Fold:
Amino acid sequence: MNEFVLKYGCNPNQKPSRVFMKDDKDLPIEILCGKPGYINLLDAFNGWQLVKELKKATGLPAATSFKHVSPAGAAVGLPLSDVERKIYWVDDMGELSPLASAYARARGADRMSSFGDFISLSDVCDVATAKLIKREVSDGIIAPGYEDEALEILKAKKKGNYCIIKIDENYVPAPVEQKDVFGVTFEQGRNELVINDELFADVVTEAKDIPESAKIDLAIAMITLKYTQSNSVCYAKGGQAIGIGAGQQSRIHCTRLAGSKADNWFLRQNPKVLNLPFKENIGRADRDNTIDVYMSDDYMDVLADGTWENFFTEKPEVLTREEKRAWLDTLTDVSLGSDAFFPFGDNIERAHRSGVKYIAQPGGSIRDDNVIETCNKYGMAMCFTKIRLFHH
Structure:
């Protein structure tokens, strides 16, 4: 198949729309079910590159959850704790495979953003992963293959219209890429930069120790940023991204946005949130929305008399601002990556409030000394990678 005709482009008025190979070769994908759209394929191809690199860098199965050409979550297949199984809504699913664990983490980091995602898997989709995906609202999936039973499970989604794509894992694109904008063709070399431990060797702070677990998290953060719309910042912990700030014009806004998502990820583990007395008929998506409001300053939107009865069997106690701050103060050993240098120490101050201890960023700001000084104040270890990861 050399080309595939799409229903429309980014929007319904953008017709005609297709994907095709300029060199008359076949497309590197096979569409097994459904009909992907323009944005679906942008998510699929970016997500596939991300998980392929994560697998290569860590040796572990990887998954990502994409929305609007940026990842909502990305992770590798490490086992889940009992608390993580609960906040990711998989505590009733029995033993998960490493690949299923990777997707549970990727989907669960920011479930609000992952609603209606496009999934990318580094490995052949197994039955455990397919069963997990079956329960979630998702637009489609790309993987190098599917077990027979897993494929049948996925084909049943969306009344048989779920988009399932098989990609040739050995496909290598041309070293120079092009795209047209406003009738003008842009051309550049592909970003083939390899992200590995060597990037984290130049530690510029007084604290020098970056343990292997943190190097894995820094690699996850940096590889995630490589396929995230810039400006971007990523917080990572325990083998997954826990907060991604994408597409912000200001670096501090990236850091704040990603930090607030990391905070929400950890607040979901607070006992008050874990033990919210939901009614049995409340679905996972509605629970996610309710939890998000409950943890926010707008908590009365779900706790007001006459409203809480719609969600809960009894009225929950408020999770106060003081309780939230005390809980977040126990979050530690978080890693943070940035796709370009930090121009001010305010980014470090904000990162500190979300438990960041290890940082990777390019360096090169005229205020590097101020940024290093702020890291030293909090005992953070920061390395200069000397590479930028803008993606547009």
Q: What stands out?
A: The longest strand covers residues 70-76. The chain has a mean pLDDT of 96.
